[in-house]
Amino acid sequence: MAAGAFKDQCLHILKEEPHFQIATINDAIEAHQLKLTFETVPESFEDAEGIDIASTTSALFANACRYTRETLASSGILEVYEETEIQYDTQFWGLVHACGAEKLISGEEISELLSRHVECLARVLENDNLVKSFDAEIGKSLIENPYYSAELLIHEYATESRGQSTIHLPKCLSQGDFDSIMTGYLDDQRANPNYMKALFNWPSGSTKCRFSPSPDVKVRAKRAHDEAMDALFRQGTGLKYGAGVQIDPEQIACKGVKVEGLTLTYSFSETWLGKYTDHASIMNNCRYLLDVVDRSGLMAAPAHSHEESTLLATLGSHVLGEYRANVISNMRETLANVEVVAYAHFLESRGARLEDALEWAYNVYFAEEYSISGFTLALPSRGASWLDKCKSIGPEIERAVKSYSVYSRMGKIDGDYFPYESFKSFGDLNALSEKKYAIGGTCFEKWGFFLFSDQCMLTYRRGHDDHAHCFFDLITKATVTIDDYDAAYAKALQQLVDRQLVSICEETGALSPTPRSICLKAVWDNGAIALGGCGDGDLALIDGLISDEMLSYCGKLFAPDEAAYLDYMFNDASFPNSQGLRNRYDHAHSPIADPDAEGIRFDYYRMLTLLVAITLKINDELSAATGRGHLENFVDWPYYDESVLEFAKKMTTKRHETVGGTAPK
């Protein structure tokens, strides 16, 4: 794509070829780059009349190779490299490799070069021939330059921001050498907390690197990271955000909301919550009042890949394969957790328990309402320590999931199958319908980029300053026509029209979203559409998008984003940064000085929130499959107060904005 910027220089060299003298290494590099450009984008030279480009570039490259080999043999690589212009730093090594000149370099020369120019390490490691020829010299340089080499190795093997080239490691390096490099890096005051995070969350099971940080390195990296972040935020860096809950004795409506700066507080009517404390009402309050699942049945806490701006999503280094939470998903997760905590405490103050209502749902309700026996749940007692509660709730979550898994496969729950029911991922659980969700299809990202990405140039009109987040946002709030764009964008716009993702007003020419693009936007924002609440018209619309491979059906109990979040919270092996809440207490991950410590209490309520979400998902599935379990008796009581409606209006007009911040309150 950048070749056009160098077209004039390429044509100049081609025309001057009979007189073009390769007098410096930079001339040789230009000749090599000319050859590569012609081989890659020959269409750029279609107007070069009267020139045999293939023969000319071949001759120039032959001269470049001859000059490079002769100069390396006579002057040595250090002198040749230091004559290279900065702009050709990367291309220099490409020329050396293309000429097969590695054999003209001695071990002493490569050692001296790396001692004077450690920045060459990355390029040298990309050349397999150099690494094989100078294994010991390159290994020594890596060990002696831990700051540079550690970031190079971490970036290559532990982060998602990897370059296009692959590096090769010297065989002489041992695990001890690797740990020495990382320890030296952690001792350096310049060490980056992002790389520290990658060290203690090192991707497991990677076949690309034969090394992994030792426990000593991981512990040191974790402590150094925590100290660095504490020091950073003590300086007032970032913006504080939070989520809170208030149970208001004066409020009549079931639910209200208050926004103060970046803190979101939901309020609930104490009168309502106190009047209805039977098990069924408690579970209905979890479903319809608390922000654990939304109205369509999708879980609120999971992160979605497109909800951050592209800029924020690409800032910093991210561990390879990590679960990518973000500020917005952290807010939703925090809100769900604090609501469950507040509601559980409120119920206990009234002589009831959230745990008792959950047990009733499995032990009584599923059998009575759906005629499905075999679901069981036994949660910790009121007087147990927080440690004992954490130890017992994890297996009960797994018991609930296994019960559903057996039922979904056999149509009944047979306890004899439990010992053989493996549970590795929440994503393995099948729904009772093959068409549970609509999720992105093979063409989803392509058309979603044009419509919803903040990086798509259709967002920006010639001569306008719209401040739109994306093209979809632009054509929703402004009058936009195809004439507002340069001709280069006409093809993309016409493709959107042809696929009925954008419509054109016959009278004004104004572009506007269609029901198809609105449907895609829901998947872009939320990761999925739960089909159970869709009418016939919406289902027909979705079916058309699936035929066009923009969407696809998903027949799992949990949507992909939900399953990823649950795996991240519950299982150790799913992501390098997994919370692993069950294994944390089942496998003695840490010494316990106080079984009622605040951190253990916090973990228990996180697992209780997960159990609430899983229970609601299972109940919705059983209800949809049997046609039972719907609300029949409604209480005449105001649901939302005006604050909720006003907040919804603000969110609709403002869209969602992302900011950096500290940990939620």
The tally of strands reads: 8
Average pLDDT level: 88
Radius of gyration: 31 Å
CA-to-CA gap between the ends?
A: 47 Å
Extract low-pLDDT stretches: 654-665
User: Overall 3D geometry?
Assistant: globular
Secondary-structure class: mainly alpha
Percent in helix:
40-55%
Largest sheet report: 3 strands, mixed
Read across the widest sheet, the strand sequence of neighbours is: 1-3-2
Number of helices: 28
Amount of beta strand: 5-15%
List keywords for this structure.
single chain; three-stranded mixed beta sheet; three-stranded antiparallel beta sheet; 28 helices; 5% strand; globular; disordered C terminus
How would you describe this protein?
The chain has 665 residues and is mostly helical. 51% of the residues lie in helices and 5% in strands. The chain contains 28 helices and eight strands. The chain has helices at residues 7-15, 25-40, 53-75, 77-82, 89-98, 107-116, 121-125, 128-133, 135-144, 146-158, 175-186, 193-200, 215-234, 270-275, 279-288, 310-314, 327-349, 354-370, 386-410, 444-452, 471-477, 490-498, 515-526, 536-547, 560-570, 581-586, 598-626, 642-654; strands at residues 242-248, 255-260, 263-269, 437-440, 502-504, 511-513, 529-530, 551-554. The strands form three sheets. It has a three-stranded mixed sheet with strand order 1-3-2. A three-stranded antiparallel sheet has the order 7-4-8. Helix 2 (25-40) runs antiparallel to helix 3 (53-75). The longest helix is centred in the C-terminal third of the chain and has 29 residues, at 598-626. 36% of the residues are buried. Residues 654-665 have low confidence and may be disordered.
